[in-house]
């Protein structure tokens, strides 16, 4: 049985190596992987199938990607490793909107997790969140009243969702809600998960002002579910200028777009 255990270790190491490659390159080629690991194309197919089943990647013709699709968003653990500089700049721009004494809502997502961790710098605050990373970071933070939203835990999004989450939000009120999205097409934000959409909408409805956080690479993309019109947000924060046509549409609509710079 020792050879089976050894094979299992090699398989797990290979699959971890594939995910490491995807974090850096965002896409991989099936033939290149077979050559790199000196295994058959069928073996790589099985690896990609299992990783896709675990929600870690999306298979495409001739390989795989962690880029979002209309029904796919990469796992929270993968997104947490990406675009750290852009996220840090967006978090700083978002923090500029927060004043001590406010009640602030923070939704799921790796971008929002970084923002949430930095809210201690604006204490005293009340923070309402369904983001498990924010809950962990703020649970012992001084001068922060943390309201952790319950619900059904999603490992993929590292957050809590469902009827319990939405019902709790319907009974709360906040000054600001920070909402992240993986896709913006035209003048509308989209998301691939219906439970996440419902929680985000409930936060928007429960806040006096809502702020959208979106990486500039996510403009010009769509997803399965319409989340909200961009006009529903009082401000939009991104890390770099979107494509000219997307920027022009936002400007024509008279929407406030903040590009977070160093």
TrEMBL record:
Residues 11-66 form the HTH deoR-type domain. Gene3D superfamilies: Winged helix-like DNA-binding domain superfamily/Winged helix DNA-binding domain. GO terms for molecular function: DNA binding. SUPFAM superfamilies: NagB/RpiA/CoA transferase-like, Winged helix' DNA-binding domain. Keywords: DNA-binding, Repressor, Transcription, Transcription regulation. PANTHER family: GLYCEROL-3-PHOSPHATE REGULON REPRESSOR, HTH-TYPE TRANSCRIPTIONAL REGULATOR SRLR-RELATED. This is DeoR/GlpR family DNA-binding transcription regulator.
